[in-house]
Each structure stands twice: as structure tokens, then as C-alpha cells.
């Protein structure tokens, strides 16, 4: 790949670029559904849940289908945003039936799971390069968890975390596997706290992992849960049918910090399923009840997750129902207003089970399990008139940490800017991929790539993680003023001494805070919380 180095612009050119950037680069478009590819058994067939699509560094989409291919056991495909399709790997009986879809790793490779095959016949976790070379990271045995339906996700620690639908105590597990293949079962479900987790995990802003189970829990309708990277699990909600039941979909954390998702059944409209919001305080609110009678165009049975698009609204697909009985693509605004945007038609793809992805070109892409020319499903795009943007990976980091940027027209980029308009040098590898590093004085907020005639903005805020390096004095009684030094301390919202919150705090600069030791403070580490996260002091402050 070619690489070009961006340096800071002269002030006059920068001012001109910023002026142009206020114009943006997006334009309004009619809402358009396009059948990009019809699956057929020779070239993979029947993409199913969870079927996660991943955008690669090359701007193409990568995914899996559990059937078809050279050996009839499914495989991995690549498709360009315009619809150019190719199979990059066909699985045989040694690694079979990849229902999972894929996750893009920090190394530019993709990671997924096969439901069957492996050394013990209970599935695998695999890595695949964009060129189609597969490496098995782990073969599941029944005792440690088996039968993954979802791809693993990569955590901020670089390890991969995922779920299995069976095994362990019989009803699934949560696992961790390192990039080198070292495997750990973190938790095995026992029905009490949930059973049969079909959904991928997510990692939230607090560093913990969140997910859902299809079954089990207090009412047997599944659960939403939180699990630490060390394996401590907490049930956040037991689905009770009235508020939904049987969630197949993963949660996602919205820009407001709350969690959103769908449940396949339950609700108050003829068991058609729900879309919901769940707070960290374990309060669930139903955003929409899907009507299971088939008499409306709402759609029913939402297997797929909601996603929050670049306009801030939520989008998803319902697997059935709608005016043609073949499913719907819908939008729910931040105010909770529902609209059906498209009714699926068998001829161009029906029964969509997989979660949508918004490509950085602004369009949505998804998979239908049936329909299309051969009846084995279709891969489609849907243009809702949203403009292009950039995606930042990872979504949080320390000053100096490398960051990947995916987008469009990046080869013409003139500058990269972190909030609040802090320049960062960057390496450009092509139109769709560039790298940068978190610059000094950056704060939590959106990232922009400036172009000759506009700009691209990240679809979510980048969290600049704070660091506490030292403090002085090292000890003192209540009322002592302590100077805390570090990095990324701007905007600090809380300082604690041994877990006790300080009530007198002054944020002096990006690198310094002065805090007064509060009443009832305990000997322990000083912790600073900012919009970008929390940081602990390397040593304990002693309260005399």
C-alpha cells in the first residue's frame, strides 16, 4: 500500500480548510433499496443470524454464510460497496457452518466462529486474512462451551471475547481467547442467570462486557447481563414477556450511555417482539412493540440488533411481517417515533435475520436469509440519504496511542483534528484507511478529517483516557490540598481519595488538578474521572 505523511497545515491554508469544512460534504438522497448480490449454493448460501458484516481497511465488506461453497459447509465472502462479490474461503467438515459473521481486528484481519468442526466437533474460533488465509485460534470442547453463533469481539486489552450457545453447564458460556490462541472460559451459564447466549458481546465505556441470553433467567425469557473481563457476571434484566422475551440480538451502547436492543418475541402486541432501552440502573423501557398479527406494516420477530446511525437515530430489520410478509427495515428516532422505511420482497431478498451495518459511505448494508433469484438469500444496501463519515478504532485511548481511521476519500485528506480542534499527524494508506495517534491536549469528542472541500466527522465521540502520574504531598490529614499531575485531566468530573469523593476540586490545566482531602477520606489510591474514563494513581495517598 502507498503511504503519505500529513503534517500540520500553514495557518492561512488551515483557516481556509476549516471554513470549507463548515459546509460538510453530504447531500440529500432518495431512500433506495438495492439488491447487490443473490446467494446461491455454489457461492455460499443462506446467511443467517448472527451474520455480522465487517468493513475492512480496504473499504469492502466481509461476512460469512453457513451453507454452500466448495464443500457445502459455508465460507467467507467479500463484497464491494457497489456489489462486486467473491468467495475468499470455503469451509469443509473440519471447520464448518460459520453462522457468526466477522469482527475486524486491530491487525486488519477478521475473526469469527464456526458452529461445527474443530478438533472435538463443537466449533472453532478462527482468524482469516483479507486474502482468505484461515488460522484456527481455538477448537471448542463441550465442557468449556461449544457451538458459537456469534463472532468474538476484540477488547481494549487486545484479547477476544465471545459467547457459545451450548456447553459448559449445558446452556452456553462466555470465553476469552488471546491473539496467540490461549483460551479461558470466563463464565458458564446455569439457566438461573440466563441460557443460550446467541448474541455477540459488546464492550461498554466502563470497560465491562455486556450481552443477552435467549433463554433462562427468572421468567425463562432470557436476560441482559454485564460481565467483567475477569468473569464476574451481573444480571441487569430478566425478560418477562410483557417487556419482551427471547432476545437474539446484541446490546449496543448509545451516545447517551444507555443500552439498546431488541427481543424477538413478547411485548403487548400479539407477541411480535420489542425494541427497548436499558439503563445502567437496570431500568428497561420499551421503545416500540412490534405487531405480530401481520395486519400492519410494522414487521415482527426482530432477531437483529438496533444500530445507532450517524444521524443519531436507530435502525434495524424485522425478520418477518410487513406488507409482503417478508420483513421490514425500520427507523426509530431518538424521540421514539417509529417508521417502516422498506418492506422486503421475496424476489430481491426476504426474512432478514442479520444486524445492519452502516458503511462509512453512509449507506446501510445487510443480509436476507431467503429470497433473491435463487431463493438462498440476498445481500443488499439501503440508502437513507445519510452522508459519509469516518469510524475511529479503537473508540478510546491514551495520548500517544495509535488510532485507525476508516472512511472515504482519505487520500485527499489535508489534516486530522481531535476535539477541541487539536491537530494530529497521520499516515494515509489509501482512500479508505489511515492511521493517526491521539495528540497531546486532545479531549473527549468527535474526530474530523479535513478534505480540500469539506470534512468527514467520526460517527461517535473518541474517549481520551486520563492518566494520573503522581501527586504531592504523599500524605496528610483531612483538609490537605493535594496537587495531582497526569495527562488528559481537562473536564474532570470527580476525584476520590480511597473511594471517598472530594468536594473541593480545581482543574488547573490539562495536566494538573488540585483537590482537597475530604471528610471521611480513607487511605488508598486517588482516582480521577473525566468524560473519557477513570484513572487511578500508581500509589496510595495516606490519610493521617
Question: What is the CATH superfamily classification of the domain at 4-24 and 389-459?
Answer: Immunoglobulins
Distance between the termini: 60 Å
Largest sheet: 5 strands, antiparallel
How are the strands of the largest sheet arranged? 1-37-38-34-32
Would you report the number of β strands?
50
Residue share in β-strands: 35-45%
Count of helical stretches: 1
CATH topology (fold) name of the domain at 4-24 and 389-459: Immunoglobulin-like
Shape: globular
Helicity range: under 10%
In the CATH scheme, the class of the domain at 4-24 and 389-459 would be Mainly Beta
Question: Would you tell me the overall average pLDDT?
Answer: 93
Offer a quick outline of the entry.
The protein is mainly β and 544 residues long. Among the domains are: 4-24 and 389-459, Immunoglobulins (Immunoglobulin-like), CATH 2.60.40.10; 466-543, Sandwich (Immunoglobulin-like).
How would you characterize this protein structure?
The structure is a single chain. The chain is an all-beta fold and 544 residues long. Among the domains are: 4-24 and 389-459, Immunoglobulin-like, CATH 2.60.40.10; 466-543, Immunoglobulins (Immunoglobulin-like). 2% of the residues lie in helices and 40% in strands. The protein has one helix and 50 strands. Strands 1-37-38-34-32 form a five-stranded antiparallel sheet, with no helix packed on it. The longest helix has 11 residues, at 11-21. The chain is globular, with a radius of gyration of 24 Å. 50% of the residues are buried.
Amino acid at each position: 500500500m502507498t503511504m503519505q505523511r500529513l503534517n500540520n497545515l500553514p495557518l492561512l491554508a488551515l483557516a481556509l480548510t476549516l471554513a470549507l469544512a463548515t459546509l460538510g460534504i453530504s447531500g440529500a438522497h432518495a431512500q433506495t433499496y438495492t439488491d447487490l448480490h443473490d446467494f446461491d449454493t455454489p457461492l455460499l448460501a443462506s446467511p443467517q443470524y448472527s451474520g455480522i458484516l465487517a468493513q475492512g481497511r480496504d473499504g469492502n465488506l466481509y461476512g460469512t454464510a453457513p451453507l454452500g461453497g466448495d464443500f457445502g459447509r459455508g465460507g467467507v465472502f467479500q463484497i464491494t460497496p457497489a456489489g462486486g462479490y467473491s468467495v475468499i474461503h470455503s469451509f469443509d467438515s473440519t471447520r464448518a457452518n460459520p453462522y457468526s459473521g466477522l469482527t475486524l481486528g486491530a491487525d486488519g484481519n477478521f475473526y469469527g466462529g464456526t458452529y461445527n468442526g474443530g478438533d472435538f466437533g463443537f466449533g472453532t474460533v478462527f482468524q482469516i486474512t483479507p486474502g482468505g488465509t484461515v488460522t484456527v485460534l481455538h477448537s471448542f470442547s463441550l465442557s468449556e462451551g461449544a457451538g458459537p453463533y456469534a463472532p468474538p469481539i476484540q477488547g481494549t486489552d487486545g484479547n477476544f471475547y465471545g459467547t457459545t450457545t451450548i456447553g459448559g453447564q449445558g446452556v452456553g458460556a462466555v470465553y476469552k481467547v488471546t491473539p496467540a490462541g490461549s483460551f479461558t472460559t470466563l463464565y458458564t451459564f446455569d439457566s438461573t442467570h440466563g441460557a443460550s447466549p446467541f448474541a455477540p458481546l459488546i464492550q461498554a465505556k466502563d470497560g465491562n462486557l455486556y450481552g443477552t441470553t435467549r433463554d433462562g433467567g427468572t421468567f425463562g425469557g432470557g436476560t441482559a447481563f454485564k460481565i467483567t473481563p475477569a468473569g464476574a457476571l451481573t444480571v441487569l434484566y430478566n425478560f418477562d414477556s410483557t417487556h419482551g422475551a427471547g432476545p437474539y440480538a446484541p446490546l449496543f451502547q448509545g451516545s447517551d450511555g444507555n443500552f439498546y436492543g431488541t427481543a424477538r418475541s413478547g411485548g403487548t402486541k400479539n407477541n411480535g417482539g420489542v425494541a427497548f432501552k436499558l439503563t445502567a440502573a437496570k431500568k428497561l423501557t420499551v421503545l416500540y412493540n412490534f405487531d405480530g398479527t401481520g395486519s400492519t406494516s410494522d414487521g415482527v420477530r426482530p432477531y437483529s440488533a438496533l444500530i445507532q446511525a450517524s444521524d443519531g437515530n436507530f435502525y434495524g430489520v424485522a425478520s418477518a411481517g410487513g406488507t409482503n410478509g417478508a420483513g421490514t427495515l425500520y427507523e426509530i428516532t431518538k424521540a421514539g417515533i417509529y417508521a417502516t422505511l422498506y418492506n422486503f420482497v421475496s424476489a430481491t431478498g426476504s426474512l432478514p435475520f442479520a444486524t445492519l451495518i452502516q458503511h462509512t459511505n453512509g449507506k446501510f448494508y445487510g443480509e436476507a436469509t431467503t429470497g433473491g433469484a435463487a431463493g438462498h438469500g440476498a445481500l443488499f444496501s439501503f440508502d437513507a440519504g445519510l452522508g459519509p463519515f469516518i469510524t475511529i478504532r479503537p473508540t478510546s485511548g491514551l495520548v500517544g496511542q495509535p488510532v485507525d481511521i476508516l472512511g472515504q476519500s482519505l487520500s485527499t485528506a489535508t489534516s486530522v483534528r481531535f476535539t477541541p480542534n487539536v491537530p494530529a499527524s497521520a499516515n494515509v494508506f489509501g482512500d479508505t484507511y489511515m492511521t493517526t495517534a491521539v495528540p497531546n491536549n486532545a479531549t473527549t469528542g468527535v474526530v474530523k478529517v479535513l478534505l480540500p472541500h469539506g470534512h468527514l466527522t467520526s460517527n461517535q465521540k473518541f474517549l481520551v483516557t486520563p492518566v494520573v502520574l503522581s501527586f504531592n504531598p504523599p500524605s496528610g490529614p483531612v483538609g490537605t490540598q493535594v496537587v495531582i499531575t497526569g495527562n488528559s485531566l481537562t473536564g474532570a468530573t470527580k476525584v476520590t481519595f480511597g473511594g471517598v469523593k472530594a468536594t473541593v476540586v480545581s482543574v488547573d490545566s490539562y495536566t494538573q488538578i488540585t483537590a482537597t482531602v475530604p471528610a471521611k477520606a480513607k487511605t488508598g489510591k486517588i482516582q480521577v474521572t473525566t468524560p473519557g474514563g477513570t484513572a487511578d494513581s500508581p500509589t496510595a495517598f495516606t490519610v493521617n
